[in-house]
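step: validate -> pass
step: tokenize input -> pass
step: predict -> running
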Amino acid sequence: MSTTVNLGTNDTNKRVPRSTPQFVPELVYFEPAALEYPKGQHILKWVQAEGIEYQLTTSHNRIMNFPGDTELQQYRIAKRTLVVGVRKTLKFDQSKPSAEYAIPIGTGCIGHCHYCYLQTTLGAKPYIRVYVNTDEIWDAAKRYIEERKPELTRFEASCTSDPLSIEHITGNLSDLISRMAGEEFARLRFVTKYHHVEPLLSLTHNRRTDVRFSVNADYVIKHFEPGTSHFEERIEAAAKIAKAGYPLGFIIAPIYWYDGWEDGYDTLLKKLAAALPEEAKWDVSFELIQHRYTKTAKSVIEKRYPKSKLEMNEEERKYKWGRWGQGKYVYPDEQANQLKTFISERIYTYFPTGRILYFT
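step: predict -> pass
step: emit ->
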């Protein structure tokens, strides 16, 4: 199957293969308590219908060994493993600058983005984990909303996962969107690199969920984002989301300095403006995040993606202390300012009424 996408360039009639399938795990673990919830039973029936191998585990922490002769093989199989469990900690983490709190509906991502911070925050647990006690999670969110009223409370649903990539399995994102539609003093936000938005299009959302797509220059997507939807697929999905009435935004991350980056990011924004319907462009938002990494992340990335072209030379970077006392390497001020200035100017050229929420 293929589709024709108007990119606004010489690619006007380019035929783009829609080759990014929905995620199907190779192995599923169920924590026994998860099967006491309707959503856990629903996922079990889906797993059985798909003929996927599954097992019980007393805790996800006991899942230690994955098939494979090397650490790299074991890592790749772990990324194809789904763990269905119960979220026990209902105290939400902060999620600045995008929101006040991270709302936990899943952990882990099916993608293989070389630069992703989940490489280190998830450590030796790269498997995909989903939570079935969504009523309890929502009750906790409601308490946060009540505590902050009449201030607006924003919840980020994608701090530790890409929830859209597994929505066909869990339905967790649809649940949250529908619940948030009735909350005057709250908003939901999530970001995705995937295009499977169909379950969201008919939901009542009352414009209280911001949908953001992660986009980047072709060079970055080609070299550093395997296992994600093509750029054209993401933009088609963004147009559908806009037509369904959701507030629309884009995260350009990581903004990466490479030979020809100016042309790359200019082309990105030009394509974006040409592909989106007019009604989607008048109030679109942008979040800009420069490439950064920690020493721990560098070590993990080099093991898991030994052939990666990702540049991580500390001598060419600035060391910046983080909120929790752990530092990271970012671009020196002069380079960072060039990136910020150039991309901001191009955004306002192609999206005169667009909003840049932050650059970090």
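step: describe -> Residues 87-359 form a domain with the pyruvate-formate lyase- activating enzyme fold (CATH 3.80.30.30).
step: cleanup -> pass
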